[in-house]
Amino acid sequence: MRSKLFVPGSRPELFAKALAGAADAISIDLEDAVVEERKGEARGLVRDWLRSGPQAGSKLVIVRVNAMDTPHFEADLAAVVQPGLDVLNLPKPQSADEVRAASEAIARAERASGVTQPVRLLLNIETPRALRDAAAIAGADPRVMGLQVGLGDLFEPLGIARRENAAVQQVLFAVRMAAGEAGVDAYDGAFADVRDSEGYLAEAQLARRLGFAGKTCIHPSQVALANEAFRPGDEEIAHALRVVQAAQAAGAQGVGAFLVDGRMIDRPFLLRARGIVATAHRLGLLPEA
Length: 289
Known about the structure:
single chain; alpha/beta; TIM Barrel; 2 domains; 8-stranded parallel beta barrel; two-stranded antiparallel sheet; 12 helices; globular
């Protein structure tokens, strides 16, 4: 999921358009993008759209619900846990216990709605406590498919500048390590200045260098930037193919470490190369094996 395009839950005229766009996922928002007075209305609109059976193809359908400590959480789950939902985006989980409680609530909603394919969880890390306990949060439940950084919510209440690169790097690194410990992906969050395409691309490229799988888009103009940043480069793919091929030859000879393009390659580098090749296949950048 290189790109995830946010769409307000109160704007149903945008759902199909976003679904047909270039983003890898559509993320319908019932939280920040919907004012309090329209929460119930938006919830119903999203429920009806999901029940209509949106044809997403390979595109993930995500809904960000309201946080567990709000009066909207249970009603959100009852509305959006439908057969058309792939991932539920949970804002501001504070602990592993909260994640497990959310998973249990989703299970109840699945039974009530006749959902047989388990809904996965994307968890936002956007409070100091969640950042401290991110590894436990990520590993709390089998439903968890990834962690997502929420820098605005994390930084602004603490007086930290959103564009302070040192702070951004530290948080991204910490979240990537936590996700890695749990064996799930990490995703970068929103970049609010939609006019600053260079700033968005730079932050996305930083996230990719730190091992992130994708980034949120709050405007369609950001989708191409995210897709570009998280696409393996041609030389990167070519090198990864050479590593995989050399590993096969080395394995046949009983060799554990070997040289490719003048670099020493052993298991960690091979695992990364295999991941790049798999991504290239998934994106149609290589012919099917």
